[in-house]
Amino acid sequence: MSSIDNLKSLISKKGGIAPSNRFNVIFTPPSQSILNLDIGSIIGSVISGNFSPQNLVNDPRDISILCQSVSLPGRNISTFEHQDYKQANKFPYTFIDDDITIEFLLTNDYYMRKMFDNWMSNIFSADSYIVGFKENYAVDVIIQQLDQKNVPVYGVKLEKAFPITMDAIELNQESQTLMKMSVTFAYDKYVPEGPLSSTLSAISSALDILG
Question: Backbone phi, then psi, for 119, in 5-degree steps?
Answer without folding.
Answer: -65, -45
